[in-house]
Amino acid sequence: MLISQLSKAFIAAPLLLITVRAGSQQDLDYASVYSEESLVTASDASVAHKMVLNKHVASYVKNYIKKNSDNLEEIKKKSDSPFKVMDDVFTSYGLPVELKYLAVIESELNPRAVSPVGAVGTWQLMPETAHILGLKISRKNDERTHLRKSTVAAAKYLRDLYAEFGDWLLVMAAYNGGPAPVNAAIKKSGSRNFYNLQYFLPAESREHVKKYIATHYYFEGKAGVTTLTKIENYHYAKAVAALEKAGAVTKL
């Protein structure tokens, strides 16, 4: 995988078709953080919007948007062109186009953004990571500042992280701080659910995930596969199937 010098290829699979064994430890693991009130049911399609936010992050999202609304609005005004490029790239890689919102919190869509630690471009890639992902960096040309090329690199990295973790919230944490801290948090917490392991993550990575959820919600007005945990996606897919069977389809 890209995480291990691109040694393995990842084949994108349908993101909602996630299976969990009934009564498994994984079900019990998530039970403490998953609200039954947020489930979509075939008997009441009108409550589909309740799947929008996990109760553990709802307050953060509301406060983040309120605090950053002016800045988010300015970013939104200039987002059409870069988002079109990102949509095209992510679609070609079989990834959710909503991953583009990660670039909003990474760089505010500024291709010339430079972090204090040397991350550059719209996707804030470090030099070593950029090289592994196939980008060229020289004194005259830094492909991290090229929107399409850097988005392709980010798509490869996100694809590989998803291959490792199978959960988009963990992917967001790993994109920020690397896979090692996420794996350490999984080991320490005994869980693969972000809301269970979040306080075993570095504060910056924990905040990064929540910023992504809030930014996604600002732009979309609702949740999506990339803002839900694996088990939430499982329940959502199950509920949508029930709605479709009942002839009352309501999707995120």
The tally of structural domains comes to 1
Can you tell me the CATH topology?
A: Lysozyme
Largest sheet: none
**Strand-residue fraction?**
under 5%
CATH C-level label: Mainly Alpha
Got a strand count?
0
| Terminal Cα span | 31 Å
Low-pLDDT ranges: 5-51
Based on the structure given, which CATH architecture is correct? Orthogonal Bundle
Mean pLDDT: 82
Cα shape:
globular
Number of DSSP helices?
11
Order of helices and strands: HHHHHHHHHHH
Assembly type of the chains comes to: single chain
Structural class: mainly alpha
Q: How do the strands and helices of this protein lay out in sequence?
A:
Elements: H1 25-31, H2 58-77, H3 80-92, H4 101-107, H5 127-132, H6 147-165, H7 168-177, H8 179-189, H9 194-197, H10 203-220, H11 230-246
Concise overview:
With 252 residues, this protein is mainly α. It has helices at residues 25-31, 58-77, 80-92, 101-107, 127-132, 147-165, 168-177, 179-189, 194-197, 203-220, 230-246.
3D structure, described in words:
With 252 residues, the chain is an all-alpha fold. It has one domain: Orthogonal Bundle (Lysozyme). The protein contains eleven helices and no strands. It is globular and about 60 Å long.
